[in-house]
Design goal:
The structure is a single chain. This protein has 262 residues and is of the alpha+beta class. The chain contains twelve helices and five strands. A five-stranded mixed sheet has the order 1-5-4-2-3, with helices on one face. Helix 2 crosses helix 10 (204-218). The longest helix has 24 residues, at 170-193. It is globular, with a radius of gyration of 18 Å. The model is unreliable at 256-262 (pLDDT under 50). The site of glutathione has 11 residues, from helix 2 and helix 4.
Length: 262
Amino acid sequence: MPKVETASSDIRYATGLHLFHAGWSNCSMRVRMTLEEKACQWTSHHLNTRIGEHITPEYFGIHPNGLVPALIHDGDVWIESHDIIRYLDSVFPDPRLTPADAAGRAMLAKWRKLASDIHVSAIKTYIYSSRPKDRRGKSAEDLECYRRLQPDAQLREFHARHSSDTGLTGQDRENAEQLLHAAFAQLDACLGEHRWLAGEQFSLAEITWVPLHYTLKRAGYPVDAHANVKAWSRAAAARPSFQKAIVDWFDGPPDAGSPSAT
Ligand SMILES: N[C@@H](CCC(=O)N[C@@H](CS)C(=O)NCC(=O)O)C(=O)O
């Protein structure tokens, strides 16, 4: 469901690229990194999810699940980070970030699917269960509002459990770790054969996984236990887009604003 109808009339008249996003969010990083790689000018609408700025009827009017990111391009609303970056690559083809060959495109599709499949069970679970106790849940007020606004049962259930006194369990965390170990072992094997995840060129596969690698590392996951993954992450970190889209935003909006974000 990449393009959605918006209930917000202001948005329908927004021209250019507008991104609703959060600094720490790996899904938002994907979009910021794609925009930086393509040197697109964009307007930032940063939401402080820690104080529930995304849990409002206004934001659910833009993104039907109240998640970040949401991209507005000339009044059209695009959601789902994987779909947004694909869309950006089609409308701003320079440089092209989708592999030209069928084998590369198949690898990209495989990495996208893996990231999607483990998003809640491994990535969200690991990251949320790594947060300090006082920053773990939503407030009772936010949770009540969330229950009313959120149509997705898996997300309602995840946040209710995560915000409960017991929180996510040790078993949840162990399951997440197992899924992550298996995923990074697959990345490592691929990177033993290819320079990048979808072949010899930097592509949307990196833009899919580099933010995961970074946020999991910041959460304490031993991402660099695999030698090939470690070398790959260093090569990705040398790109200007990594600094601008990931590092500069991780702790909140950069003081002076992103060089290309207005
Ligand atoms: N499948 C969606 C997932 C979006 C998502 O889960 N976003 C997270 C940040 S990475 C979020 O908004 N979390 C806030 C919340 O769950 O309340 C995508 O790829 O865009």
